[in-house]
Design goal:
Layout lengths: L1 E5 L3 H13 L3 E5 L2 H10 L4 E5 L7 H10 L6 E5 L7 H6 L4 E4 L4 H14 L8 E4 L2 E4 L4 E4 L2 E3 L3 H12 L4 E2 L1 H8 L10 H13 L4 E4 L3 E4 L5
Parallel strand pairs: 1-2, 1-3, 3-4, 4-5
Antiparallel strand pairs: 6-7, 7-8, 8-9, 10-12, 11-12
Amino acid sequence: MRLLIVEDERRLARSLAQGLTAEGFAVDVVHTGTDGLHQATENTYDLIILDIMLPGLNGYRVCAALRAAGDETPILMLTAKDGEYDEAEGLDTGADDYLTKPFSYVVLVARVRALLRRRGGRGAAPELRVGDLTVDRATRRVTRGDTEVNLTAKEFAVLEHLASRAGEVVSKAEILEHGWDLAYDGDPNIVEVYISALRRKLGPGLIFTVRGAGYRLVAAHG
């Protein structure tokens, strides 16, 4: 899952990004409304965390512009405690939820996960099943048959993307785009490392290499 944080308080933005990355999300951060609108328009995100009081365009205008363009990405708005947020106005512009600062990080993560579970469109199902493999997005549990498989946050992100496209060939570039943020400029072969780890932990007959094209997750036979 890929998130965009639009927040001009740099310390808060950095803290949120670090925490959500540890939760297994790929996170991009910008600090102005103008940059936020550009990033959201140019890239695909599963959810946007959007502050209201921003340099350039404020959060209301960013949200309204995205909705006017037909972008239905879930938006969680952040507001200061002084009442700057008008709930009716926020919902009118198309926001899905809001949090008042200061907020508990645990509450923010819970709201993010709730919005991701509720969102419509491709991959909205909270539980993905491919043969005897189950990937539960809500609890982040993975089971094969009756056995629970313990994955790291990044392994889960890679598997989740493959499972959401089960039966399709998913390129290495698509996996990188889904699981790593825009700042990542390391070796794209890192994907192979995680595919190998998943094969080792999940067992045979699930993840296949399609030479020159990518990987395909299919239900195991027999």
